[in-house]
Design brief:
4 strands, alpha+beta, globular, two-stranded antiparallel sheet, Nuclear Transport Factor 2, Chain: A, 103 residues, 4 helices, single chain
Length: 103
Amino acid sequence: MTENVDRTDPNEADEYFLNCIRNGDLKNAMTCFDSEAIYIAKDGNTISGFTNIEKVVANLCNMRADIKVYEHKNAPVGNDMMYWLDKWTMPVSHPSRSGTKNK
């Protein structure tokens, strides 16, 4: 991504990460995570370890998921930020119904 983004601004960080996912850009999506980050899945399970988080984010990038967030919370943690996507949607296309296959 070539755009200048202030990832200390929660709104810009949000849009940057989601654009990386939409564009299938795993490398830059992962720059949004600290090496000690914890990812909380929608079911509430926690995923720790950079490599484990990368697997989850890779799946989203491979789908080029068009995640739409309609409610989120931000909480500063020292000089870092915790970002919580409370409510979101992700349109799903079903290959057998659309006649096309995902790459």
